[in-house]
Amino acid sequence: KNWTNRCFLKLVPRRAMLRLTTLFSLWAVSSALYFHIRESETRCFIEEVPIETMVVGNYKTELQQEDGTYVASGGTGIHVQIHDPNDDLIMSKDYEAEGRFSFISHEAGEHTICLHTNSTRWFGGIDVRVHLDLRVAEGANDYDTISKKEQLSAVETRLYQLLAQTKQILNEQTYQRTREAVFREISESTNQRVLWWSIAQAIVLILTGMWQVRHLRGFFEAKKLV
After folding, report:
1. pLDDT for 25-67, tens place per residue?
2. Which residue in 6, 96, 171, 211 is a FRET match for 194, CA 20 to 30 A apart?
3. Could you read off the pLDDT of 78-109 as tens digits, one per residue?
4. Which residues partner with 81 through β-bridges?
């Protein structure tokens, strides 16, 4: 490990390493929001995730009071269901009122994340506010925890972070190339269909014109006009 660090530092100048660090630090996808649901409601979110990418969701539920304010719901938790792009169930699990859930994608594409309350003891008119912070890819890693667990120095932690971000960029590039290939195939198929449709229209117009000419010729001959 120390040998790897020395080689990396020799190959990458300090200024270039700083630029890489600044660039890679921007490679983190995070979306924080809150929404209101009732007991019988389900909210779903669609997240595009590359293959072999970790997604972490931090959440907190708050229960509406009589005065309209929201406080920590205590025993009111949520149920999380996650489906992959093929609509196969990845995870279905109950969670407490506040915490986090995570999963790793095994296929690239749109993953559906659905949440609903796991309690059936409320009245239908009571709202629950759910705070949700979804972190995808490198943004899902807690490097402070990793550093303490693996007993890494500051340089080793930064190197670990750069390697993780580089891997994620490669995964993202692979995913984008796959999407580009799919879109190219769809575009080529559409162009071919448009071409054949144009040819079919031209043939119909030619046949229609020939039939009209023949019909008018027969009409004029019948009337002895020609």
Report:
1. 434 455 678 888 887 788 898 988 888 888 888 888 888 887 8
2. 211
3. 889 999 999 999 989 988 888 889 888 888 88
4. 92, 114
- How many other CB atoms are found less than 10 A from the CB of residue 112? 15
> Which single residue is written with the structure tokens 């971000």?
165
* Token code pair at residue 184: 């190219």
Residue position matching structure tokens 């071919």: 192
CB count in 10 Å sphere of residue 166: 14
H or E stretch covering 154: helix 154-222
CA distance 122 to 141: 36
The whole-angstrom separation of Cα 6 and Cα 3 is 5
Q: Residue type at 27? A: W
Instruction: Please report where in the chains the tokens 């200024």 appear, as a residue.
Output: 15
